[in-house]
Amino acid sequence: MTNEDSSQLIPIASADDPRVGHFADLKGAARLRDQGLFIAEGSRLVDQLLSSSFEPHSLLVEERIARDYQGMVPPGTILYVATKDLIESLVGFRFHRGVLACAHRQASPPLSAVVAEPGRQTLVVCLGVQDPVNLGTIIRTSLALGADAILLGEGAPDPFSRRVLRASMGAVLKLPVATMERVEAGLEEVRRGDFELVATVVGPEAVPLDRFARPARMALLLGSEGTGLGEEWIAMADHRVTIPIAERCESLNVAIAAGIFLHHCRAK
């Protein structure tokens, strides 16, 4: 057994060391998705990762807290140790959180399995949400308010990108996230699972949220930041619901709106 297989602390003396290449230039780390990996930053996210079902590949830890993590990681996890300055040089920005983890992604659950899971009552469907922080906030809010899964349409941000992961505060590690390759077919499959489609819209033609009684199984459809839900998805919906707001305000941020809808519709 080598040192790297025994969870021993492995010192790193250069940012050019290829063993820590996964942690390099994190602002441009889209390459990790193609490798089936993602990065968690900071003790809060790393601790959640280590207690989740996701398998860590390696950790990069500041010297001052290295031994704390030596007893926390699963056997065989690689533990690299470096100075704060070296870590900052490697990741490409100022870093004060002490630890990063590289972990293996899990396969996205098939939509059929998400819909068929017994006991699920609330799905949150993001159709056009493009900002990673908004998506992360929606995932965090969905977990907090009892949603059972997140469904993503085409072109959504990577749910395991650093910005989504940070904004979700680790919720993406706990809540199933599935991608619909073809939205229309995906929504039809959701409906066949006895979920009613609830379109969130702005306008007087919709039912005000305070008068809306949620169905037993609900898929809440959220649209893009700029234009909201597409007309084709509104046309497919079983319900159209709106949040009454002051006339001087045009609309709400999609993540804020998601929280209001979910709080009102929280399954009892």
From TrEMBL:
Q: What is its EC number?
A: 2.1.1.230
Name of the top EC class for this enzyme: transferase
An annotated Gene Ontology molecular function: RNA binding
InterPro entries named among the record's database cross-references: Alpha/beta_knot_MTases, Ribosomal_eL30-like_sf, rRNA_Methyltransferase, SpoU_MeTrfase, tRNA_m1G_MTases_N
The UniProt keyword set, sorted, is:
Methyltransferase, Transferase
The record places domain tRNA/rRNA methyltransferase SpoU type at 123-263
| Record-linked SUPFAM superfamilies | alpha/beta knot, L30e-like
Q: Which PANTHER family match?
A: RRNA METHYLASE (PTHR43191:SF12), RRNA METHYLTRANSFERASE 3 (PTHR43191)
Spell out the protein name for this chain.
23S rRNA (Adenosine(1067)-2'-O)-methyltransferase
Instruction: Tell me which species this is from.
Output: Kolteria novifilia
Q: Which gene encodes it?
A: tsnR
